Input
Amino acid sequence: MKRILVGDIGGTKTRLALAEGEGAAVVLMEVRAYPSLHYATLEAVLEEYLTQVDFPVEGIALGVAGPVSGQRAQVTNLPWVVEGAALRQHFGVECVLLNDLEAVAWGLPALEGDELFSLQVGVPGEGNRAVIAAGTGLGEAGIHWDGARFYPFATEGGHASFAPRTEREMALWRFLQARHGHVSWERVVSGMALPELHEFLRAYERSSIPAWLQAALEEGGSAGAVLAQAALEATDPLCVELMHWFVRLYGAEAGNLALKVMSRGGVYVGGGIAPKILPLLRQPGFLESFVDKGRMRPLLEAMPVRVIMTDRVALYGLALAARSPRIC
Output
């Protein structure tokens, strides 16, 4: 049985594992996470991992947070350039690169039981699928159904232009445009977006920040995680409003993607944020924004919407993709 090294390369964490299995079954071993920014190159992370696990591998499959072209990728939120040919030469085994959301899309058949949570049952059936995932950035992918098989494909839809829907969102667009020029959906729906959303909302609502929250934000951890936790624990009213707004924005872009892919087979919400804020996603805001597309509302109400509850789905997908003759 072939053992391959699979890796989910993100702006915050790089998750690595050894994968075995046959068909749609994937067995992951030695799953470990590394802080991406602590390493100068991806090769350094892979070398450390292989030294720690001390197992031979027969191939490498990596999902990279960024566009992949010609088996080469510049990681969007990291100063890493990843080249399949260089990795093949360095480690002496075949190497496959996929976009990270394409890897997630490949991994859907391996999910089962409590690895999925249904937000909207819709009308289950075959058809195209869509994946949207807010983590450090915002990733999006589609899955084409040809009547017999699924074909995952990558997009960079998270970098499409943000479309404000309300006066407050128009003010947010102006705030972000002054700083960044182009305002993408990733600028409003991602972990890196949360601190700026919070800063804007404090100014817009003329609200001061509590001393305890300011201290927590200055401790050096993830500001987005601090803000989300304050909302989940209801310890700061503006953080509660912030996260409800974030969820509505998330739902709006998920609905946009669903229409563009015509994802009658379902929309899957992945990434590191969704499982952590599931109580907020279960409230009406996400789905209300998802279906709020005028005459297309009935179409969106018929689409199943599920949250991916495991952080291993991209690793599953890389193992499945590496077995496919369509990839290798």
Q: What stands out?
A: The two ends are 17 Å apart (CA to CA). The mean pLDDT is 93. Residues 112-309 form a domain with the Hexokinase; domain 1 fold (CATH 3.40.367.20).
